[in-house]
Design a protein that fits this description.
Membrane topology: Multi-pass membrane protein
Subcellular location: Membrane
CATH class of the largest domain: Mainly Alpha
Structural class: mainly alpha
Shape: globular
Family: Belongs to the sodium:solute symporter (SSF) (TC 2.A.21) family.
Organism: Desulfofundulus australicus DSM 11792
Order of helices and strands: HHHHHHHHHHHHHHHHHHEHHHEH
CATH architecture of the largest domain: Up-down Bundle
CATH superfamily of the largest domain: Sodium/glucose cotransporter
Largest sheet: 2 strands, antiparallel
CATH topology of the largest domain: Sodium/glucose cotransporter
Radius of gyration: 24 Å
Keywords: Membrane, Transmembrane, Transmembrane helix, Transport
């Protein structure tokens, strides 16, 4: 291990020790269950801003910087997709979820579909969050390995144990304290990185890069299908972003929570800009590498002294913590509060908090285990987590919010179908991180099975209790039906006329999923309970 390695590891350990102390200081604020899970719903806008910035912007910076080294400026689209995702949550969804006093997405499913659905949703959600945590931890560990002799898995073990120690203290209060400190570290990281850029390669270096490798400045260089997949993933995730919602819903009022989210959207511009800038700088100075998170520290070592490189990567460590801490905590909430609450409905809130703390230990062990299974493919765990969690919970969440006909049996069937079909599709593709069976992403297979399972079982089980709406259908429903029907027909036409092109570009799965989603929205619009139609007829002035 050289001096750079000592500075990186030393500062990371010292910083985390400070976070542990801060976490214990705020322990007294987490005395109640609501205080532990959602901060007593007393967060101010700056707290929501710090939480969301640490969660999404930190992980965005790592993803964009690494990809920018390989693909150039087109990596920025990942951050733009994430910004749109947070913006929709702020403007459209925050008020709806706050009115329902949602703590977790699995809890929302349980509230609507009962105890068994709560258990299934809680377990699946809990199992996927350590996958997201380990993915970011592996990225940071790759950077550490450039200067040390530590195996990547050892770095992940240290990360997981440190997360466990300070999350045990104050729950959501520990999260907000950590994210506030992380936000300060992000600013320091940007300043140090900007200094390094102007020392070498500077604006002139980027000009030379543009001349020698013009593809690095192609706005679509990463590939159209990849960009579309990013936007599709984040748009789908707006209803399922449990960790983000859990932090945003800790706000005192909806308006304050919305203000904090919008502040985080604005701040994300800096993370995108500097992520691209540092990735391009590394591509200019130390080209030819396979991993941006390894080449960036090698670039900085040519420009800055060891203490400054250590401080820069303390910011990267803050990015990893900013993503990993909320993921581990939110997953533990689903396991300790929701799953255990389903197993034993008689548990008091204080007992559920204790099980949440125990769940943190369990998910820490799972995070460490996952790091041993695929330590060289951090992105693979992200994709698998999206597939399993979104494939299981998407349709039940939509139904819980908008379709009262949906039944408990249908919700459970949907979750199991989505989970198992997504897993099976991965198996058929040999568990490859990017080359999927029939060139169709498993998440689209899982989510399509999820929707179809819920719709089919509901319509069969509720036979005789529903009807297709007629002239008394509400205006909002008619508009949604017209939009979804038209969009579905348009996508079907695209599939029929461009099947080969869609398959070659890897967009066929997305197109088929859009058809299934369009049909789902159409059914939600026009298939209503008979008693609802009677009520509409009794209250509609046109029928009086």
């Amino acid at each position: 291990m050289n001096s750079y390695g000592y500075w990186i590891l030393g500062l990371a350990v010292l910083y985390t020790a400070v976070l542990i102390v801060l976490g214990n200081i705020v322990r007294r604020r987490a005395t109640s269950a609501e205080g532990f899970w959602v901060g007593g719903r007393s967060f101010r806008p700056w707290m929501v801003f710090a939480c969301i910035t640490g969660l999404f912007s930190g992980s965005t910076f790592i993803a964009v910087m690494e990809l920018a080294y390989l693909k150039g400026v087109s990596a920025a689209w990942y951050g733009v997709a994430e910004m749109v995702h947070v913006l929709i949550i702020a403007i459209v969804l925050l008020g709806m979820f706050r009115r329902k006093l949602v703590v977790t997405i699995s809890g929302l499913i349980g509230d609507h579909f009962g105890r068994f659905a709560l258990g299934v949703a809680g377990l699946i959600t809990a199992l996927t969050f350590p996958m997201w945590s380990v993915a970011t931890a592996l990225s940071f560990a790759s950077a550490v390995s450039a200067f040390t002799n530590l195996p990547i898995t050892v770095s992940v073990i240290i990360s997981a144990l440190l997360l466990l120690i300070y999350l045990q203290a104050g729950g959501m209060w520990s999260v907000v304290m950590t994210q506030t400190a992380n936000t300060i570290m992000f600013a320091l990281m940007f300043i140090i990185g900007a200094v390094a850029f102007f020392i070498k390669p500077g604006i002139g270096g980027l000009t030379q890069l543009a001349a020698s490798r013009p593809e690095m400045f192609d706005p679509a260089g990463v590939g159209l299908q990849v960009i579309i997949a990013w936007f599709a993933t984040f748009l789908i995730n707006v209803l399922l972003a449990q960790a983000a919602l859990q932090m945003a819903l800790s706000c005192r009022t909806v308006e304050e929570g919305r203000r904090g989210l919008l502040m985080a959207v604005g701040a994300n511009i800096f993370f995108i800009f500097f992520g691209v800038l540092f990735g391009l700088a590394a591509a200019t100075v130390v080209p030819g590498g396979a991993r941006g998170m390894i080449q960036v520290p090698l670039y900085l070592a040519q420009v800055l002294p060891a203490p400054l490189v250590g401080l820069f990567f303390l910011g990267v460590w803050a990015c990893a913590l900013g993503w990993g801490a909320p993921c581990q905590f939110s997953g533990s909430t689903s396991l300790g509060r929701d799953f255990m609450g389903a197993v034993n409905p008689g548990l008091a809130d204080e007992q559920k908090v204790r099980y949440t703390r125990i769940s943190l230990v369990i998910l820490t062990g799972l995070m460490i285990l996952l790091s041993f299974l695929r330590s060289d493919q951090a992105a693979w765990w992200n994709v698998l987590a999206w597939t399993l969690r979104n494939g299981a919970t998407f349709a039940p969440v939509v139904a819980a919010l908008f379709w009262p006909l949906a039944t408990r049996r249908a919700a459970v069937t949907a979750m199991l179908c989505g989970f198992l079909f997504g897993l099976a599709w991965y198996y058929l593709g040999g568990w490859h991180p990017s080359n999927f069976y029939l060139n169709i992403h498993p998440v689209f297979v899982g989510m399509s099975a999820n929707i179809l399972g819920l719709v089919v079982v509901t319509l069969v089980e509720q036979a005789g209790k529903w009807r297709i709406g007629g002239p008394n259908l509400a205006a909002v429903r008619r508009s949604l039906a017209l939009f979804s029907g038209t969009a579905t027909a348009a996508v079907l036409f695209l599939i029929l006329t461009s099947f080969g092109w869609l398959h070659k570009k890897g967009l066929l799965g997305l197109a088929l999923f859009l058809v299934v989603t369009g049909l789902y929205l159409l059914i939600l619009s026009v298939v209503v309970p008979k008693e609802e139609m009677v009520a509409d007829m009794e209250t509609d002035p046109a029928t009086a």
